[in-house]
Amino acid sequence: MGTTSDIAAWVAGASMETMPAEVLARARDAIVDTVGVILAGLDEPVSRIAAEIVAEDGGAAQASWLGTGLRTTAESAAFLNGISGHALDYDDVSVSVTGHPSVVVLPAALATAELTGASGAAVLEAYVVGVEVMAALGRAIGPAHYRTGWHATSTLGALGAAVAAGRLLRLDAPRLAAALGVAVSQASGSRRNFGTMTKPFHAGHAARCGVAAARLAGRGLTADPAVIEAPLGLFDLVAYGEGHPEAVGPSLGNPYDLAAAGLSVKKYPCCFAIHRAADAVLDLREALGTRRLDPDEIDAVEVTVPVGAVSPLIHDRPATGLEGKFSMQYALAAALLDGGLGLSGFSDAAVGRPDAQRLLARVTVRQDPSIPVGPNPIEEGHVTVVVRLRGGESVARRVDQPRGAPAHPLAAGELSAKFRDCAARALGPEQAETALARLRAIEREADVRALVAALTPVGLTPVATAAR
């Protein structure tokens, strides 16, 4: 047995009956959060562009773009839901993956479940195994994978999506191994595209690739049975000698990553590398009052982070809303100006505000090698923000764990409020409330297609070849 076979055997043998209650509870919360951000991202330009192409191409009405009347192939539905779920960068993140697992795994699982008429319990189970495989690969692949420019959401996401879809297609272990092999040859995604529409494309691409890999393997398509661990395999290609593929199999479910490391649910719709500093600024603003932190009185904002903690933040002087999501300078300027970081704060107009541009120029970021971290400095160590006022006074705040992290989770009411706010972009209040209740009890759904129908706006007739 090797790594590829170990993963396939574990996925084939996993059962919801043996999954800890805490794992299932966290999976339900993640499903609620991910469906919410999918609904919130429907009208983003990247979502509309992708939907136009899918609608033009047509295809069998197998699965749905959530919150719309568009029904299309299972692969295309996974593609669209992955894109709209990542369009706002509001979806959860994993310290183990150094990326976003749910926005890839859940779209693949839902699309395959609609294709097969699977139950909500089967979706919950498939979601857990997909996230666990992504997390185990992320822990083992080593930091060079992300450091050299790969986007783990997409590279590892293709494999997580493949096993989730394969589980719902009831593939046996050899065919699950083949699905992993097909997914490895589709794994891709460059971090240079952060701050553009191509970043959310990564999530949709990985979800679509995973569904396609599982369906092809189910029909008998073959792949190398050691494609992850063997020479010329995944780790050889993208781990640069830092990976430990032999660690993947024994770690699966031992313990479950969803319970041990957990997922971080985003409070703000921007890169998670910003969140600790944003919490610090907003805490200071609330504690001291807007008069003392008047932007006109701020001389400088100094942010100190661990080495590598700002690697995704490649836009120091952003000009668009998408670039602003990957700019520490803009996000802190917006937090000071607006008293919060909401969806409206990351529009092109908001980023282009003269007062925001003036203030962001006063924000500096320093990486401190003395701050101890593990393999993922984006979520480890601590961040300190010092705000220096023109009169000579300075105030500081240190944040170790941001709001929404496993050590500082959002309360159930906050998670529900986020879902309602996101769902309001597609559904009326009553329908959103019903959807929330059903998602929280997803394992009771006999056929997930009924749940998906409940996420389609009332009065909207499903159409196979027309976008929303």
Choose one word for the global shape: globular
Helices, by number, come to: 21
Q: Which percent band covers the strand fraction? A: 5-15%
Number of strands: 8
- Helices and strands: which structural class? alpha+beta
Radius of gyration: 22 Å
Major sheet strand order: 6-5-7-8
How far apart, in Å, are the first and last alpha carbons? 47 Å
Total tally of structural domains: 2
Average pLDDT value? Answer: 95
Helix-residue proportion = 40-55%
State the CATH architecture of the largest domain.
Orthogonal Bundle
Describe what this molecule looks like in 3D.
The protein is of the alpha+beta class and 468 residues long. It has 2 domains: 3-264, 2-methylcitrate dehydratase PrpD (Orthogonal Bundle); 272-399, 60s Ribosomal Protein L30, Chain: A. The chain has helices at residues 3-13, 21-40, 45-57, 74-86, 102-116, 120-141, 144-147, 152-168, 173-184, 198-218, 234-238, 248-251, 257-260, 275-288, 321-324, 328-338, 348-351, 354-360, 412-423, 429-440, 448-454; strands at residues 63-64, 71-72, 93-94, 263-264, 298-306, 363-368, 383-389, 394-399. A 4-stranded mixed sheet has the order 6-5-7-8, with helices on one face. Strands 1-2 form a two-stranded antiparallel ribbon. A two-stranded antiparallel sheet has the order 3-4. Strand 7 (383-389) and strand 8 form a beta hairpin. Helix 1 (3-13) crosses helix 9 and helix 5 (102-116) packs parallel to helix 8. The longest helix has 22 residues, at 120-141. The termini are far apart. The mean pLDDT is 95.
